From TrEMBL:
Family: Belongs to the UPF0312 family.
Pfam families xref list: YceI
Source organism: Streptacidiphilus alkalitolerans
Residues forming coiled coils: none
Name of this protein: YceI family protein
Domain spans labelled Lipid/polyisoprenoid-binding YceI-like: 12-181
InterPro entries the record matches: Lipid/polyisoprenoid-bd_YceI, TTHA0802/YceI-like_sf
Gene3D superfamilies to which the protein is assigned, alphabetical: Lipid/polyisoprenoid-binding, YceI-like
Length: 184
């Protein structure tokens, strides 16, 4: 049975980074996928279960925390070829609209700023449920993903392959597994 958003869930929540994941997937050499994540981020969500359109979300990701399980690749991703950590230390998302599409699905629209470029995106989230943990914290869970074009953010570095194609795909899938803790 699917979880549903109920009125008692209204409130302000903070993202629990220890129990959340913000990741990405890119094609490498056109034959495999490379997965990575950002290990440091903060965010808050205001949930209005009775008037979902009045809900909001913001997220700040530390570029330095990128982790693909390969130090050389992580260093390259932090360079000006990709995310330009020295100039743009954060990736920011700020919501501009929320739409409850059914009792378990939310469309979160907002401005995603990467490497100084802001684009509007809409992320489809599934509401995974609510629970009170053993420490008395009220928690909500959401999972979602969205595909972006890295070129839309000025990230155009690539290398051609002998067999055709390129080393890194333009399309990047952003993945969100979010555990929220209700503020006291």
């Amino acid at each position: 049975m699917a979880a549903t958003l109920s009125p008692d869930l209204t409130g302000t929540y903070t993202i629990d980074p220890a129990h959340s994941r913000i990741g990405f997937v890119a094609r490498h050499a056109m034959v495999t996928k490379v997965r990575g994540s950002f290990n440091e981020f903060t965010g808050a969500i205001v949930v209005d279960a009775e008037k979902p359109e009045q809900s909001s979300a913001n997220l700040v990701i530390k570029v330095d925390s990128i982790d693909t399980r390969n130090a050389d690749r992580d260093g390259h991703l932090r360079s000006n070829d990709f995310l330009d950590l020295a100039t743009y230390p954060e990736i920011v998302f700020a919501s501009t609209g929320v739409e409850l599409t059914d009792d378990t699905s939310v469309k979160l629209t907002g401005n995603l700023t990467v490497k100084g470029v802001t684009q509007s995106i809409t992320i489809d989230f599934d509401y995974e449920g609510a629970a009170t943990d053993p420490f008395g914290n009220r928690r909500l869970g959401f999972e979602g993903s969205h595909v972006i074009s890295r070129k839309d953010y000025g990230i155009v570095w690539n290398a051609p392959l002998e067999t055709g194609g390129v080393l890194v795909s333009d399309k990047i899938t952003l993945e969100f597994e979010i555990s929220l803790v209700k503020d006291a």
